[in-house]
Design brief:
Length: 297
């Protein structure tokens, strides 16, 4: 299956937009930041590790020639989020979009988790997304800014649930509920809110914690995806840029899945029949038709 690596927008579709990307120093946050900068946006990347942020900012500035600001911020702490917002405003004079991308996660049987382990994931993902959304929302509403966008990165197990990542599933489900709730409540302030649910997109952060050691060979993600491949970072960046841009002005309260069909493959009761060789179908059809035929009188 051909991978798609082309940028969707080519011109300055995000020119002069100010976008804050939480967890923008690594993985998918970094890839989305790169594309936003290529499209002319000023981007603020935030996370706990400022050394990593500096390195990423230097790299992306050289690569794209765009503007980037770093802000150390643990999203679990509301006052750090407020300080990060203030830093953004004092540097760029405004903020147009918030991308809630920061997350924490690791696989574990739930009964092995301490109460603090559970809280840690829920605090980063749910409380962190709430902290940023609340601080930015209050700012936009007080300032009577006519338009703003929040984009939340969730997962498909926000609605299916998943064992072994239960705190993450609970937290992402909460972020989805926040998306759908505030999309309605804050629309009157010109704030649009959407979510993206990616399937497997290889990153070091996720793979080290979700597929450690030889698990990546044992549970090859490409086999779980009908399109038989993992996602390309540019594909997610294309979708995020679209959802932040004015081209998606009428999309509000939506969650867009970008997973090559992964979660539906697991959901459809008979999808396992894909494993049957093509040549078996003649025989199976004959067997079924035989059972269907009316008994002779
Ligand atoms: C059991 C564990 C554990 C493990 C940590 N803990 N790792 N318990 N098994 N493997 C426990 C600790 O013992 C502690 O509990 C509690 O969790 C908090 O751990 P800390 O290390 O103190 O927390 P902190 O330094 O804040 O680090 C947070 C973290 C870490 C989540 C544990 O992994 C991290 O910084 N992650 C950020 C990046 C990340 O996770 N990226 C992946 C996102 S992928 P006690 O009781 O001992 O104090 C993703 C993709 C989803 O979301 C879908 C993919 C297809
Ligand atoms: P990643 O590189 O580990 O990204 C997570 C980021 O969150 C890191 O930059 C991390 O930076 C930051 N972060 C963690 N805790 C934080 C905190 N308390 N405060 C501020 N920042 C914090 O992993 P990724 O794969 O790119 O994940 C990005 C997003 O995509 C996440 O929301 C994840 O759930 C989602 N996602 C990923 C996949 C996938 O296949 N990769 C699939 C579905 C959904 P610091 O450690 O420096 O703080």
């Amino acid at each position: 299956m051909t991978e798609f690596k082309e940028p969707m927008f080519r011109n300055n579709e995000l020119k002069d937009r100010v976008i804050v990307v939480t967890g923008g120093g690594s993985g998918l946050g970094k890839s989305m930041t790169r594309y936003f900068m290529q499209l002319g946006a000023n981007v603020v990347i935030t996370s706990r590790n400022t050394e990593k942020l500096e390195k990423t900012a230097g790299e992306l500035k050289t690569e794209t020639g765009g503007n980037i600001l770093i802000a150390g911020c643990d999203v679990r702490n509301y006052s750090e989020v407020e300080a990060m917002l203030e830093k953004t405003i004092s540097e760029f004079g405004k903020v147009d979009a918030l991308l809630n991308n920061a997350a924490g996660n690791f696989i574990s049987p739930s009964e092995r988790l301490s109460a603090n382990a559970f809280d840690t994931i829920i605090d980063i993902v749910l409380k962190g997304s709430k902290n940023c959304t609340l601080a930015f929302g209050k700012h936009w509403i007080n300032k009577k800014q006519d338009k703003a966008v929040v984009l939340n990165i969730i997962t498909t197990y926000a609605w299916t649930g998943s064992g072994y990542v239960v705190p993450s599933a609970m937290a992402k489900a909460g972020v989805l509920a926040m998306t759908r709730s505030l999309a309605v409540e804050w629309a009157k302030y010109g704030i649009r809110m959407n979510a993206v649910a990616p399937g497997p997109f290889p990153t070091k952060g996720a793979w080290d914690r979700l597929l450690p050691g030889n698990l990546k060979d044992k549970f090859d993600f490409t086999k779980k995806v009908p399109l038989r491949r993992v996602g390309e970072h540019q594909e997610l960046a294309n979708l995020a840029a679209f959802l932040i841009s004015d081209f998606s002005s009428y999309i509000n309260g939506e969650v867009i899945t970008i997973d090559g069909g992964e979660w539906l493959q697991g959901a459809g009761q008979f999808n396992m029949l894909q494993q049957l060789p093509e040549e078996m179908w003649d025989m199976l059809e004959m067997m079924i038709r035989k059972k269907n035929s009316k008994p002779e009188k």
